[in-house]
Write a structure and sequence with these properties.
Elements (H helix, E strand, L loop, with lengths): L2 E7 L4 H18 L9 E6 L20 E8 L4 H17 L8 E8 L18
Parallel strand pairs: 1-2, 3-4
Antiparallel strand pairs: 1-3
């Protein structure tokens, strides 16, 4: 049940944006124990100066294609699953649309199942009582 926010520089063509969204979702399915149909993504484009990332933090060389992927999902996955997910996202986005690994940042936020309502004001994953 991840909710994925993808922040990208403004002006990218639709196929580039779709490749990023598809690559992130494919990584979640392949490595993050996420069902194929469990896809909820928000893509935000940012004007110059509105997506700010230190160009060298942690020894990376970030450029103008810096892309931030935030994944909100249920707690409980192992560190190995998380590491595999990071690697799969970078690999997928490197293959299409050609993002350099230095330009891909991933941040995970974990929550419990009661923190989610998929509609109708109901916590579908947590029975009442």
């Amino acid at each position: 049940m991840p909710l994925v926010r993808i922040d990208i520089p403004h002006g990218k063509p639709d196929p580039w944006i779709r490749a990023v969204a598809d690559g992130v979702h494919a990584a979640l399915v392949a490595t993050g124990t996420v069902p194929e149909a469990d896809r909820f993504q928000v893509v935000n484009e940012h004007a110059p100066g509105r997506l700010i990332a230190d160009p060298a933090f942690q020894g990376f060389a970030r450029g103008p294609d810096f892309t931030l992927v935030q994944i909100f999902w249920s707690a409980g996955r192992t560190n190995d699953i998380k590491r595999g997910l990071y690697a799969a996202i970078a690999r997928n986005l490197g293959a299409d649309p050609g993002l350099r690994g230095d330009d891909v940042m991933v941040a995970l936020t974990e929550s419990t199942r009661v923190d989610w309502s998929f509609g109708a004001g109901i916590a579908q994953y947590v029975p009442e009582g």
